Amino acid sequence: MTSASPQRRVLVVDDDDDIRLVLSAILADEGFGVEEAVNGQDALDRLATEPLPDVVLLDLMMPVMDGWEVLRRRRADARLSQIPVVLLSANPNVELVDGAANACECLLKPVDLNALLHAVGKTSPEDPASD
């Protein structure tokens, strides 16, 4: 698999430590700079104080603040609204409608490695139409 440019940054947001750590390790191995957040509020805090990531991997079901609320707040914030978001969900019935309409894609947990790398690559600002 092709390594990503070291400048590309991904924010992985998931309350499940194992999932978050595995996704982060995979992305780091592929050359991405990875930041982690344990819930939606943690993600928004990081987005307010750190350089913006190139893409956010966002779990939908989390305590404190879920992914749906993060999407609503992202859409309302001009600074955050341009960041591509890839949703993560264990629910096979999640569709990219309403609150998720501003997301690029939705990956079903457990996340397939090829699908993950494709989704993150597809959101590349250098080539938004890449497949």
Kindly describe this structure:
The chain has one domain (9-122): Rossmann fold. It starts with 8 loop residues before the first strand and ends in a 9-residue tail after the last helix. Mean pLDDT is 83; it is low at 124-131. The chain has 131 residues and is an alpha/beta fold. A five-stranded parallel beta sheet has the order 2-1-3-4-5. It is globular, with a radius of gyration of 13 Å. The chain has helices spanning 17-29, 40-49, 67-76, 113-122; strands at 9-13, 33-37, 55-59, 85-89, 105-108.
Secondary-structure blueprint:
Elements: E1 9-13, H1 17-29, E2 33-37, H2 40-49, E3 55-59, H3 67-76, E4 85-89, E5 105-108, H4 113-122
Major β-sheet annotation = 5 strands, parallel
Taken in chain order, the helices and strands follow as: EHEHEHEEH
CATH class: Alpha Beta
Oligomer: single chain
Reported by name, the CATH topology is Rossmann fold
Rounded average pLDDT:
83
Short overview:
The protein has 131 residues and is of the alpha/beta class. The protein is 33% helix and 18% strand. The protein has a five-stranded parallel beta sheet.
